[in-house]
Write a structure and sequence with these properties.
Elements (H helix, E strand, L loop, with lengths): L1 E9 L3 H8 L12 E6 L11 E6 L7 E10 L3 E6 L6 E12 L5 E11 L5 H31 L1
Antiparallel strand pairs: 1-7, 2-3, 3-4, 4-5, 5-6, 6-7
């Protein structure tokens, strides 16, 4: 199983960042990884128990992860676990923590863990997948930061 963590400072309060990040109607305004993002129809908004489907860009294989929110505390933390089995993923879970920082803005920390499949290829797949996921997550958080910076311009 591989783990990773990416942190950034966003020029907005934690509550605002949390609200935008979990607003699926607006997700593609800033998210550089995804080609689509939606909640299942029975969930009007992100909340504990809600299920979402996020499909990666085609350049990254267009893999769709369906996740269920297992923790949801607005302005503070949300965590998800994968509920489907897309190509190359055996397990996946992630948390996104938010905290206001004294100098203004907020810190966002995205942590993930996953295991690859097939099992016999894990030793090869997991280091590559972890490196790509860390890099893409860094790009996503920079894009989120830029979205808030441009909003104020």
């Amino acid at each position: 199983m591989k783990n990773g963590k990416v942190t950034d400072i966003i020029p907005a309060p934690a509550a605002e960042v949390f609200a935008l990040l979990h607003n699926y109607d607006r997700r593609l305004e800033w998210d550089t990884l995804l080609s689509s993002a939606r909640l299942d129809s029975e969930f009007p908004a992100a909340a504990k128990g809600a299920v979402s489907t996020c499909r990666g860009r085609w350049a990254l294989g267009g893999i769709a992860l369906r996740t269920r929110y297992v923790t949801f505390h607005p302005g503070e933390v949300a965590a998800v676990e994968m509920v489907n089995r897309p190509a190359f993923f055996d397990t996946f879970a992630a948390s996104i923590r938010h905290r206001n920082v004294p100098e203004g803005g907020s810190e966002i920390t995205y942590q993930f863990r996953f295991s690859a499949r097939p099992v016999w290829l894990r030793k090869v797949l997991e280091p590559v997948m972890a490196r790509i996921f860390r890099w893409e997550t860094g790009k996503r958080l920079k894009a989120l930061r830029a979205w808030f910076q441009n909003r104020k311009a």
